[in-house]
Amino acid sequence: MNGDPTPSGLSDADVEKQAAGVAGAQLVEDGMTVGLGTGSTVAYLLPALAQRGLSIRCVATSPRTEVAARELGLTVEPFGSIDRFDIAIDGADEVTPEGWLIKGGGAAHTREKIVAVTADRFVVIADSSKAVPALTWPVPVELLAYGLASTLRRLGSTVLRDVPRSPDGGVIADHHTDLDDPGRTAALLSATPGLVAHGIFAPDLVHDVLVATGTEVEHRRLR
Ligand code: A5P
């Protein structure tokens, strides 16, 4: 795979993101409540979903997804009155064969995790570069500004990211750690006061993974 444009004008990676996004959109049915993720793969999901012309109610995980979805004519509601989604579809930075994910490369993992747990079916859409044998990325974390220096000292090996605060006021950082046992790391991070949410998503959250290689999409059903 290289970065040169294909005949469609898209890079090879974008061809795969588009294929995964289109496949994800096919899983949505008329009348559903739908959680919309964030990122460059979701950017291909949105037009594919809008093109289907379904009557659906959506909730977005970020302002950029909300704006893009509305511009395409999708109905986006605030996440306040809906207490479950039929489906949520989102990208990932890494996905293992067991369904462990790293998310938050786009700093939206806190909202993305709330949407994922709210969905009856959480679907991951990914280009082939995201499918890895084991997690390796630094773990994105969202931290409260209150007591930030203390939280950073207790976490250790955590680098503030040069990005704006989250829409909920959180500070975004990346925690560098060994991920041989992602469940143990996730539990340690979850138990850290001052840490709002981390980007490790456990397999019990994930129902389907759609991984595109070229224009072919492999559908992995985890649950
Ligand atoms: C946003 O915070 C992330 O969790 C994204 O879902 C993830 O980084 C995947 O993004 P891309 O689709 O842009 O690779």
Layout of helices and strands, plus pairs?
Blueprint: H1 12-25, E1 33-36, H2 42-51, E2 57-60, H3 63-71, E3 87-90, E4 94-95, E5 101-102, H4 109-118, E6 122-127, E7 139-143, H5 148-155, E8 158-160, E9 171-175, H6 182-190, E10 195-198, E11 200-201, E12 208-213, E13 216-221
Parallel strand pairs: 1-2, 1-3, 3-6, 6-12
Antiparallel strand pairs: 4-5, 5-11, 7-9, 7-10, 8-9, 12-13
The structure holds arabinose-5-phosphate (A5P).
Describe the structure.
With 223 residues, the protein is of the alpha/beta class. The protein is built from 6 helices and 13 strands. Strands 2-1-3-6-12-13 form a 6-stranded mixed sheet, with helices on both faces. Helix 1 crosses helix 2. The longest helix has 14 residues. It is globular and about 50 Å long. The chain starts with 11 loop residues before the first helix and ends with a strand. The mean pLDDT is 96. Bound molecules: arabinose-5-phosphate. Arabinose-5-phosphate binds next to helix 4.
